[in-house]
Amino acid sequence: MKRLAEADDGSAIPATRRVPANGSEPEVLRAKVEELVAAFGTADAAARLAGLCAKIDGRLVFTTSFGLEDQIVTHLIATQGLPIEIVTLDTGRLFAEVHALWAKTEARYGLAIKPFYPRHDEVEGFVSEHGINGFYASIAARKACCGARKVEPLARALEDAAAWITGLRADQSAARGGVSLAEAYAGRGLVKFNPLLDWSREQALAFARANETPLNPLHERGFLSVGCQPCTRAVRSGEPERAGRWWWEEEAAKECGLHVGPDGRLVRAKPALEVSA
Asked: 192-251, pLDDT tens digit by residue?
């Protein structure tokens, strides 16, 4: 299996990854982040997304996993006709309900969501080395699986992008408590934008229901945060909503690598800017 290197932002990327063509310097990214926060810090989510499109030149990419928050962002993009590319990472281990919702979402909004799949040699190599469910054996093995199935495809999805839009909310978990509206990803040369950062789950549910936004039926069965099928369980009463993800691991380790740095913690804007691009 081809080895994954560690990006400047701490996520695993292919060792042969090219620097994004936009090549933004940390100072430029800092200025963009500060401008976005100042302009849209108190705006609603629709205005935040429209404002991002007005202020950032280049390719804008939203990555959806079809969770509650992602469905709301898709709704806002589609109903405003915003020039944001919607993509998803199909890991090969998703719930059938996710694929059904994917089709329903495209029909509801009249759009095509672009898929990015793992490279077959990466997955074949992982399974040959660890076994089909080898990710249960250790945190290192699980992160290697996430690296092959999610992080490497993400690197391709974001190649040459100027901004990456996510559905992160600050109250999803303790690790995500410091999420900002806009963050600088110096290692990828782009701005990361989180338009729902200050929403609560209750607010998100109310919005989705009021706007007839298609939702995953697994949410009603206690799967509040849905990832790969073998790595997701329903949340028990009193648990945080991401407790069902990689439930056999310690809480601090519960990120797949898409949003974390070398220490396993969620990447923040300041550390990203401190790393040379």
From this structure: 999 999 999 999 999 999 999 999 999 999 999 999 999 999 999 999 898 999 999 986
CA distance 211 to 85: 22
8 A C-beta contact, residue 211 and residue 145: no
Query: What angle do helix axes 68-80 and 96-109 make, rounded to 10 degrees?
Result: 20
For the full predicted model, state whether its pTM sits above 0.70.
Answer: yes
Q: What is the pLDDT of residues 142-191, one digit of tens each?
A: 999 999 999 999 999 999 999 999 999 988 755 555 789 999 988 889 99
DSSP for 154-214, written as a single string: HHHHTTTEEEEE----GGG-GGGTT--SEEEETTTTEEEE-TTTT--HHHHHHHHHHTT--
Long-range contacts (CB closer than 8 Å, 24 or more residues apart) made by 110-114: 110/78, 111/78, 111/86, 113/64, 113/74, 113/86, 113/87, 113/88, 114/85, 114/86, 114/87, 114/88, 114/157
Which of the 8 DSSP states describes residue 121? H
Question: SS3 for 231-276, per residue?
Answer: HECCCCCCCCCCCCECCCCCHHHCCCCCCECCCCCECCHHHHHCCC
Give the DSSP letter string of 24-80: --HHHHHHHHHHHHHHHTTS-HHHHHHHHHHH--SEEEEE----HHHHHHHHHHHHH
Query: CA 192 to CA 180: how far, in whole Å?
Result: 9
Positions annotated as catalytic residues are 256
Helix (H) or strand (E) holding 6: strand 4-6
C-beta of residue 176 within 8 angstroms of C-beta of residue 266: yes
